[in-house]
TrEMBL record:
Name of the molecule in the record: histidine kinase
Organism, scientific name: Streptomyces sp. R44
Keywords of this entry: ATP-binding, Coiled coil, Kinase, Membrane, Nucleotide-binding, Phosphoprotein, Transferase, Transmembrane, Transmembrane helix, Two-component regulatory system
Gene3D superfamilies attached to this UniProt entry: 1.20.5.1930, Histidine kinase-like ATPase, C-terminal domain (3.30.565.10)
Top-level lineage group: Bacteria
Length: 400
């Protein structure tokens, strides 16, 4: 049964042609059995043939077949050819045009043509027992019912198809919107991971380079100092690898991850360890906390850590020799304040704004993005008298 249904859907014209041949065959049998001969017989045969053509091509050219059917009906009235089996094609074409998603004039013409054909047919060939006026009206109404019903069924089918088409279009549009939102989310996540990788690599590699240069310089004169520098390089490298594993683990969703394989996300409590690490790399840093330390939202803690990390990395890169820095955390009732200053020569602010300290689009741009994500504000620029200053205020509640 399913195969038959699929065949009918794949070959609509072939199916219509089959029924057209059936209609033509039975119509010709009626013509022969009715004893119509001569000119009237040829007329009935030609009408039957053309009505069969209407059925065969009803889906390929519904408007044209409707006009042909109307013309055939008028010809029957003019020639006095009484309705016969072939006129069933009128019901078929009325249903088809009403169901077809075509011009509305065609659907209206189908309804008017059907009602007009039944009315004129009753007036031209009154049924037996319809001598009185009331009987004529009654039989006329009875004759119009099949045509009206065919049009109503076709129009209902067209409305239903349009409704389902709208549902499919809406579902397709929603799917496209979901895909677009997913792409935006992926792009945002990639940008976040890129910032994280930048902060990890820029800071830790900078420390490792400084320690490696120092170890090479004192290798002969102070082996113990060189050994300490190498140990710092090893520790810093392990920390960098651990953080990179954590970030790469985010990309491996769905894979099993061993417990303890990745380090926790950095937070405010680790800023002091960060300062100690920078001090071990040879940078003088003063660190102070004001207010009452307390747990903060994870996004605020990570942002605070990354800002301090980026600021100290830039100080080490561009501050020059004998540069000193200070880091101050201030706990307010409704937020966390950060202040990172140095007294070095610093890099031009345009370098940070236009492309970042690494020339690849990070620096202050990345800091502002981080701060903006938690609803905070950031101010950065040269200090009076030399050096660079970065201050940020991170609210405990995101801005709406």
């Amino acid at each position: 049964m399913q195969r038959l249904y699929d065949f009918i859907r794949r070959h609509p014209t072939g199916v219509d042609t089959f029924w057209a041949v059936v209609l033509l065959g039975f119509s010709l049998l009626w013509v022969v059995s009715a004893g119509t001969v001569g000119g009237s017989g040829l007329g009935y045969g030609l009408v039957a043939l053309l009505f069969s053509l209407v059925v065969a091509l009803r889906r390929r050219a519904p408007e044209r077949m409707l006009l042909l059917a109307v013309a055939l009906g008028l010809a029957q009235l003019a020639l006095g050819l009484v309705p016969f089996l072939a006129d069933f094609a009128m019901l078929v074409i009325i249903f088809t045009v009403a169901a077809h998603d075509g011009p509305r004039w065609a659907s209206r013409l189908a309804l008017i043509g059907g009602l007009g054909a039944s009315t004129l047919s009753q007036l031209r060939w009154p049924m037996e027992g319809s001598d009185s006026g009331a009987a004529k009206v009654f039989f006329t109404i009875i004759m119009t019912v099949p045509f009206a019903l065919a049009w109503v069924l076709g129009d209902s089918l067209r409305t239903r198809r349009a409704y389902f088409a709208q549902l499919e279009e809406r579902a397709s549009r929603l799917e496209q919107e979901r895909e677009a939102q997913a792409k935006v989310a992926v792009a945002a996540e990639r940008a976040r991971i890129a910032r994280e990788l930048h902060d990890v690599v820029a800071h830790n590699v900078s420390v490792m380079v400084v320690q490696a240069d120092g170890a090479a310089y004192v290798m002969d004169s102070s082996p113990e100092t060189a050994k300490q520098a190498l140990e710092t390089i090893s520790t810093t490298g392990r920390q960098a690898l651990a953080e990179m594993r954590r970030l790469l683990g985010i990309l491996r969703t769905g894979e099993h991850q061993e417990a303890g394989e990745y380090v926790p996300q950095p937070d405010v409590q680790q800023i002091e360890d960060l300062v100690e690490q920078v001090r071990g790399a040879g940078l003088t840093v003063d660190f102070a906390i004001e207010g009452s330390p307390r747990p903060l939202p994870s996004g605020v803690e990570l942002t605070a850590y990354r800002i301090v990390q980026e600021a100290l990395t830039n100080t080490r890169k561009h501050g020059g020799p004998d540069v000193g820095a200070s880091v101050r955390l201030v706990y307010f009732d409704d937020g966390l304040g950060l202040l990172v200053e140095d007294d070095g020569r610093g890099a031009p602010q345009e370098m940070y704004e236009d492309g970042g300290a690494d020339g690849r689009g990070h620096g202050l741009i990345g800091m502002r993005e981080r701060v903006g994500m938690v609803g905070g504000t950031l101010d950065a620029g040269p200090r009076p008298g030399g050096g660079f200053r970065i201050s940020a205020l991170l609210p405990l509640k995101p801005a709406h």
